[in-house]
Amino acid sequence: MRENWRIKVSVLAGASALAFSALTAVPAAADDAVEDLQEVQMPVGVKIVEGLAPAAGADVPSLEPTADAPFSAAAAAKAAPANTCLGSTAAYGVTGCFQHNGDIVWAGDTKKDGMSAAVGVYTDYGRAAEVCINKLGVNTWATCNKDYRETGNVRLRALRYDGDTGKFYQPESWSGWIPVDGKY
Q1: Are the C-beta atoms of 168 and 39 separated by less than 8 Å?
Q2: Coil, helix or strand at residue 79
Q3: Among the four 69, 108, 142, 147, which has the fewest Cβ within 10 Å?
Q4: Measuring CA to CA, which residue among 134, 97, 138 is closest to residue 118?
Q5: For the segment 139-165, what is each residue's pLDDT rounded down to a tens digit?
Q6: What does each C-alpha distance from 57 to 54, 128, 134, 146 come to in angstroms?
């Protein structure tokens, strides 16, 4: 009888810890209002790159949130044209994606809050992290054209950036690993 009680208490304690961690560790969704921004420490030596406006007439990704339909990155990569963004991620005020044809990082600013959209790019082969900053204002895209190793993968991190202080803020969101060559 005593062993049953211990098992029940252990299960209850584990479930409580899991529920608490889910409540405190989940980042805010892209459309959720942010009342208290928390500073994010970036890796030492991260390079900050100011994004450029896309060329006139360029195909730009949509800043509208995507539907809640199931998504298969592999299926999207096979069906998409070569200039399509893959590995999209979004957090409050920021949308980011990676265009494998040309190795272009897109940073979209979706909130008028005095901050800039920031999309960090990390590789799985040791290249120093970089952050593409969109200082062009709300409802705009900025691009950072990079040259990544074709056999590597990149991962995106969407967050806010305050250009006056040079600090980054949560909420943030990470993409999964995206193959640079676009082939899943």
Answers
A1: yes
A2: helix
A3: 69
A4: 134
A5: 999 999 999 999 999 999 999 999 999
A6: 8, 32, 19, 21
pTM of this prediction exceeds 0.90: no
What six digits make up the tokens of 95?
A: 């949308």
Q: 15: buried, middle or exposed (CB in 10 Å: 19+, 13-18, 0-12)? A: exposed
DSSP 55: P
DSSP H or E stretch at residue 76: helix 73-79
Q: How far, in Å, CA of 181 to CA of 184, rounded?
A: 9
Tokens of 160: 């806010």
Secondary element (H or E) of residue 5:
helix 2-25
Distance of CA 42 to the CA centre of its chain: 14
Instruction: Report the C-alpha gap between 139 and 111 in whole angstroms.
Output: 7
Averages of pLDDT over each 10 residues, the chain, 184 residues = 49 43 42 68 91 87 58 41 75 93 93 96 94 96 94 96 95 94 83
Structure tokens at 161: 């950036």
Q: Report the pLDDT value the prediction gives residue 65, as an integer from 0 to 100.
A: 60
| Beta pairing class for 116-123 and 153-162 | antiparallel
Is-contact 169 115, C-beta < 8 A?
yes
The encoded tokens of residue 8 equal: 């029940």
